[in-house]
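Students often ask why we bother encoding 3D structure as a string. The short answer is that it lets us treat folding as translation between two languages. Here is a chain of 733 residues written in the first language.
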Amino acid sequence: MKKNLLFNLIGAFCLLSTSFYQAQVVGYAITGITQTNTSTTLSCDSTITMSFSAQTTASFAGTVPADIQNVIIGNNFTAFQFQVSINWGDGATTTHGAGTSTSGTLINFNPPISHTYLSSGTFPISITVYNPANQTFAIDTINYTIGCQGNNYMCMGGQVFCDTDGNGQYNAGDIPIINAPVNVVSNGITYTGYSNNTGFYTISYSGTAGQPSIVSVNSNWMTSNGYTGNQNLQTIINVGCNLGMPPAVSNFPLNCGNNPGNTNCYAGLVFCDANGNGTMDPNEAPISGAPVLLYSQNAIGGPLNVTVYTDTNGYFIYCGPISNTNYVIGVINQQWLTYNGYTMPNNIITLVGMNVPTPNPGFFAVNCGGGANLCADLWSTVTPWIGYYQNTTAYFHLNWGSYGPGPVGPYTLTLTYPAGVTVNTGSIANPGYVITGNTITWNLNSASASFSSTDLITFNVPAGIANGTQHFFTSTITPAGNIVDCSNLNNNGSLLQLVGNSYDPNDKVVGRPAIYESLAIPSEQIDASLTDALTYTIQFQNTGTAPAQNIYILDTLDANLNMGTFTLIESSHNMQVVYMGNGVLKFEYPNIWLADSTSNEPESHGHLVYRIEENFGNIAGSTIENTAYIYFDWNAPIITNTTYNINTMLWGIDESSMNQFKLYPNPSADNISITGNVTNFAYKILDMSGRELVSGQGNNGFAKIAIESLTNGHYLVQIVSENSNETLSFIKQ
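And here it is in the second language, the structure alphabet:
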């Protein structure tokens, strides 16, 4: 069982030796993708086709050439099977499998690779080729313009770059900027294109040849990246796509300041290396939520560092201005390893940067133990979906799973709802449940080490409930077999709903330890004598009229929270977490393509849940406030409500209080004693989830209680006598 530990995410470390990571692979090792017809990135119809060959360009003799002709580049060519994943840039993704035994020939796909677009425009197409036999892969992104029918379709393009010498021209030493959003305003309509890995972009748009249009790099995007530009607003003369004339050109030389542009991306995999070979094999478990410090001494303005967290696949990626060279040092914090019971022979790895959106990852091979020492990290949360009113149907997501690394086996899941509220059993998708009182219980089993599940359950809220009434929904998950839970800090979900609350699709909710709800403490209060863990849920919804390609959330953490205890519990979509410093977390959802509420309301929602402790020693009267800023693509941020908690003296912790009962010693490792000026009393020890752990009787005004079997942490003692009902707290250490 883990112990509470405050670990320093950005602590100093001593670098004894470094070496560049070089993958040891067998067979054909994929290293890149090139296109043989990159000059053709415009289609006058709505369907494009794609082909592949290995090592060299294929001949199209007797066949129709594909619109996009890819060549897979690699080392040690041999016959190989591979997978292709294509993000077509309009929200659609397709996956294809094939193989070849010869180089320089067209590779047969059945059916052939093609995609039809529903509208014209310029689309960033991302192509991933993966060899599962040795886990090598390559990614490339190209911009492709669809639609040039008649003279109404205009074509333009240019380059976006960091103008390091300030001469307004792209010269040696200048740095291309990838994924820069460029807007063209024509006849009052805005069209957007994105720069590729060489900084070039192309845009097709509706307009009239010979008439002017306005072109600019999105100003919100420039501000968020620290860029400025003296030539950011430009006027062009429209040129028709099919008139046989060169397209209009707008180049954007930007002043990048201390940001050298997203020229390099750094990635890694953190996993349990069961066989100790240093490479993530198919049966080895990823480690989610691992903090990785990226450090560089070669940054503009001096050494820089940033902390990123692995996702549910054990993967992290960071693209940004951290190094002027093509490498950074990646460090897994030794205290975090100790906290989780892990070891790692060398927790310092050199990561090679690449000027592509997804670089080859470095491997952080962790020894997670084995056999009886391999634990499983179970988690559960409850998240809302729409508003909560009297005489209506309320919707809730029950979310649960495990982060591994060990297989879970049998486990128990519960959901407790308020008295008087009725569950609609027909909405429960997970079978085999039992309802006792107002608690739903499932006895489940999983052979997986890592999994995530959700169930959308509805409840009938009766009429006649006063506005503002507090309704709590709580979840628990516990192992029922021989597996040990790596941490019980994320086993309980707690959600407060205020009856009559209107629904804001973009909001932030704070949850306290469940003990506060069980004792009916007002929702904003926490006890000053405890170091509480708070659980935050951020919800977002795309209420626009088109899918949101990229979403990120900036979350400003209160100074009274301990950043070293941050733990991501779950997210509705794949996400990357980056600690920006000064208490600011950035939750990144690249290429999320979140549906808009107009076309697909159920799929337009997203959320994330994380847990963080307050600072030790926060005094009575200290407050904790948090606000999140949600960015959809490059629009202005949506600012959520501000959550609020205040430390108050809810129950005594020392003998100087005016309570009828006294508790000592506090803290204690083995025994506590209770004294009171009454003859007989009853007591219960509760953990912070409200579970009763120990109970007994006091006689002649005294009770001595053994606590050696309790895990370290905070506990409450409820004491009931004929004339008194008090709650005290203590620390087991």
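Translate back mentally: The chain has five domains: 29-146, 150-254, 265-369, 505-650, 661-732. Keep this in mind for the problem set.
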